[in-house]
Every structure is written in C-alpha cells, then in structure tokens.
Amino acid sequence: MKKNKSSKNWIIHQHRDQYFKQARTSGFRSRSAYKLLELDKKFKLFKNCKIAIDLGSYPGGWSQILKKNLKYSKILSIDIKKMEKIDGVEFLCCDFLKDETKEKILKKLNNKADLLVSDMAADTTGSKDLDCIRTNALCAEVVEFSSHVIKENGVVIAKLFNGKDFLNVKNLAEKKFHKVNFFKPESSRDYSKETYIHCAGIKTL
Ligand SMILES: C[S@@+](CC[C@H](N)C(=O)[O-])C[C@H]1O[C@@H](n2cnc3c(N)ncnc32)[C@H](O)[C@@H]1O
Questions:
Q1: Where are the domains of the chain?
Q2: Ligand 1 atom with the shortest distance to the CA of 159
Q3: 30-202: what fold?
Q4: Which of 17, 30, 84, 202 is the most exposed place for a label (fewest CB within 10 A)?
C-alpha cells in the first residue's frame, strides 16, 4: 500500500521518538506511559493511593503504570475505545461525556477515589483550534466531575492544551481546588501545546 506524505512523516517521527522506542522495549502500550511516570515524580501521585480512575485509558499505557505502582489498589479505567485486558484493572468502554458513564463510575466504587487521572484527547479534526477547544472541554468536564468522585484530599491530573479555553479551565479549577498547577512532561513532544493540570485540595462549601 502506498503511504501518503503525512503518514510517512508520522512514521519517521515515531521512529525518532526515544520514548516511543523505550515504550516498545519496556512492554508499555503507549509512550504516554512515561508522561504519567514524570507526573508521579513531580506530584507523588501514587503515595497512599487506594482507588484510582484512569479516563481515556486506551491503549493502556497509563493503566499499566497504575497497576505496576499500585499493586493492591482498585483501578477503574474508562475509554470510548475498547482496551485490551490488563490484570487487576477494571475497564468500562463508555463515553465519559455521557451522564450514564459518570453514574456507572460512581456505582463501581465503594468509596471515593484518591486519584483521578485523565489523558483524554478529542479525535483530531484538522483544525488545531477546534481540537484544542474539544480536548479542553473534556478537561473541564473532568474537573467538574472530580468533586463528586474524589476524596477531599484526592488529586486530579488531566490533559489540556495551552490554547483556546485554557484560561476558562484554569479558572474553573481554581474555583474548585485550593492548589492548581500545570506541568508539561519532557516526554510530551516539545512542539505540542499539551500540558497537564494538577488539582489538589477540594474547596468545600
Ligand atoms: C492520548 S489517548 C490516551 C492514551 C493512554 N493514556 C495510554 O497511556 O495508553 C486519548 C484517549 O482518550 C479517549 N477519549 C477521547 N474522548 C473520550 C470520551 N469522551 N470518553 C472516553 N474516552 C475518550 C480516546 O479514545 C483515546 O483513547
């Protein structure tokens, strides 16, 4: 099959990408796995974590890292795409934007979660602005949902883009949490506007 120029560039890029190669040799399903490791190094996410939720888990790199580091914890992963089984990880194939998914998540947990991580990204459309708006809307939805699903001292990590609607998400997070930080892992490509929001300390009414 003849490959077009952009798919060739993509392949070249992937081959150059050290994290992509590293992920393959380590058996991680995605290069994103390294982003979660860096986020943990920065924010100590796994310390005392008994219940973790992984939103946008497919193909499973972050869920693998969670399982590896939280051997005895409950891990619930959600994606709109079907993720291959990971032992010790419960998976729901659902659209996070639907109310029924949020209800399912709440039902699955006996207690509130210590950690809610989201690497969700909307499918690319060809318009960078639209992709940014859609991914940042997912992030806003995660921040909104977090107050229902995490413990008072729980932590949220979610992907967002430093572009359109970034400030709206930041303002929303600051209304809900005492601590809001941003961190771009080294394993995130330099040219991408991707970053991660870290929220801790829910503000109670
Ligand atoms: C960058 S990938 C996640 C990679 C994953 N963290 C890993 O390490 O393997 C983003 C994921 O977000 C998922 N996603 C996007 N919108 C979603 C939605 N509304 N509900 C659930 N998952 C969604 C996509 O299906 C995609 O698998």
A1: 30-202
A2: 1
A3: Rossmann fold (3.40.50)
A4: 84
